[in-house]
Write a structure and sequence with these properties.
17% strand, TIM Barrel, 235 residues, 8-stranded parallel barrel
Length: 235
Amino acid sequence: MTRLLVSVRDVGEALSAAAAGADFIDLKEPRAGALGGLPLQTIREVVTALRRQGATQPISATIGDWPMAQCEAIVAQVLAVADCGVDYVKVGIENEGCAADVLQALAGCGRPVVPVFIADRGVDTQLLAVACALPFPGLMLDTADKHAGSLFDCISERALQRFIEQVRRAGQLAGLAGALRLQHLPRLRSLAPDFAGFRSAVCSGARTTELVPAKVRALRAELCRASALEPGLVS
């Protein structure tokens, strides 16, 4: 089945999301942008709390929104976040001239990095090919402008399918995110990414409001139900 990634910003939300059935716990600050980074101390506290509670879900964390021209600073922040004990570090990749150099640097930094391609202006196929040729555990698509609609509003389903197919051929996990909600589950079922990321859909209001565990459970149940309807989905 497509696995559920839930973005959280503190210990309370992380423990609630884990108990409600999230498959991945993703640490970010939604008030600081699409991939807003949390303070390192908060990341350490969340990792410690989850492991102390016996949670076995993989934990990822973002580094914040960085311009591609600041490659050295990006790698330094990746190392700092990774040292907090997370399993994966997520880094936003924009369609900018230095992006290929950033991907090369990330691949060689010795930490498990998941590049997140920002899809608002489409996906650069040459840049994606570079990433697929490098030893990343997974690749994601996400959106920067959460007020402009969902991922499905800025990129065609055919392009999303090509992304998933290309990433899988490279032996990597393929993830989708970007203002996804319950109504997008039929499309996600058809695309069957390895994991899908949610924040807005599991909050009491906007993505900056508090996480609601009951919404995480409901979303998890719907993903499982969708998977049961399509036995061939990749798990």
